[in-house]
């Protein structure tokens, strides 16, 4: 059932996802379902619903990821980072959350699914000191855009991007940003299986580009 639902939804996108990656994505849903009972990882309880709400909703961001390393801040149980890492196995991902049980879930799942391009970090984002600046800082359901910029500014450099996944177009949030913040792009996202609007907002600092 899970595999059929995943195939049905992916067929409505232009994403290229191999058979092996589809198997890993299904196993990720099964792991979320299993661990959710003890670890309360997500309020979505029905694994079939997770396919659209968590897996495909994460994957649709893939075409907009830049070259280089990415950090998913406030990743929770690895969303959107784990699905994206599965379909981009050559791209390095850091998945960061302050809650230990979520990071334990990510590490165990990477081990069981053979995911090699993920480093899971337990830390408050404000305290995380990267060895190298990340090419992009990504988040879903993490914070307001202003808070994301305030808390994550040290994670990237002049060329870096902030990629915020949002539902409705966040007009008020964007209008309230200071002048040195540049909205570089707004991508409306189509998520098969989900009603309602989804947007990816790409931001940077205007005086550093
Ligand atoms: C609403 S959840 C979203 C999880 C996931 N991104 C998703 O879309 O399902 C927000 C997550 O951000 C984490 N978080 C909140 N503030 C944080 C901080 N300052 N540093 C690191 N993680 C934080 C929480 O522990 C939580 O797992």
TrEMBL record:
Pfam families: GidB. It catalyses: guanosine(527) in 16S rRNA + S-adenosyl-L-methionine = N(7)-methylguanosine(527) in 16S rRNA + S-adenosyl-L-homocysteine. It is found in: Cytoplasm. Keywords: Cytoplasm, Methyltransferase, rRNA processing, S-adenosyl-L-methionine, Transferase. Its main location: cytoplasm. The keyword Protease does not apply. GO terms for molecular function: rRNA (guanine-N7-)-methyltransferase activity. Its EC number is 2.1.1.170. It comes from the Bacteria. The keyword Zinc-finger does not apply. PANTHER family: S-ADENOSYL-L-METHIONINE-DEPENDENT METHYLTRANSFERASES SUPERFAMILY PROTEIN. HAMAP family: 16SrRNA_methyltr_G. Specifically methylates the N7 position of guanine in position 527 of 16S rRNA. Belongs to the methyltransferase superfamily. RNA methyltransferase RsmG family. This is Ribosomal RNA small subunit methyltransferase G.
